[in-house]
Amino acid sequence: MCPDEHIDPFLPKIVTALVTTAARIKQKARHAKYFQENKSLSKHNYLNELKQLSLSKSSTTSALPEHESSSRRQTRRDSYVNEPL
């Protein structure tokens, strides 16, 4: 008998649920620790701070400003459309 025959078909779903729950608990613990260290911050201010951090990270990863990247995409799209077949 192969040991694989005894694996429950729901095991991957169970593992995924456990990992997801663990990640949520870890995130809540991180938030709680942050609030303990910075009691003057409200939850609203903290969430805004997180939003700003994520926006600043995403803007630093983009080499081109938004208007330049969209115009470059449009130029690329036009060149595909205008190519002879």
How would you characterize the overall build of this protein?
The protein is mainly α and 85 residues long. Helix content is 73%, strand content 0%. The model has no long low-confidence stretch (mean pLDDT 70). Residues 65-85 have a biased composition (Basic and acidic residues). Residues 56-85 are annotated as: Disordered.
Blueprint (SSEs and pairs):
Elements: H1 11-37, H2 43-61, H3 66-81
Summarize it.
Residues 56-85 are annotated as: Disordered. By secondary structure, this protein is an all-alpha fold. The chain has three helices and no strands.
Which stretches are poorly predicted, pLDDT < 50 over at least 5 residues? none
| Major pleated sheet | none
Total strands: the figure is: 0
Radius of gyration: 24 Å
**DSSP summary: helix tally:** 3
- Morphology call: elongated
Distance between the termini: 60 Å
In terms of structural class, how would the helical and strand content be classed? mainly alpha
Order of SSEs, N→C? HHH
Average pLDDT value?
Answer: 70
Give the DSSP E fraction (strand runs of 2 or more residues).
Answer: under 5%
Helix content: over 70%
Based on the model shown, name its key terms.
single chain, 85 residues, mainly alpha, 3 helices, 73% helix
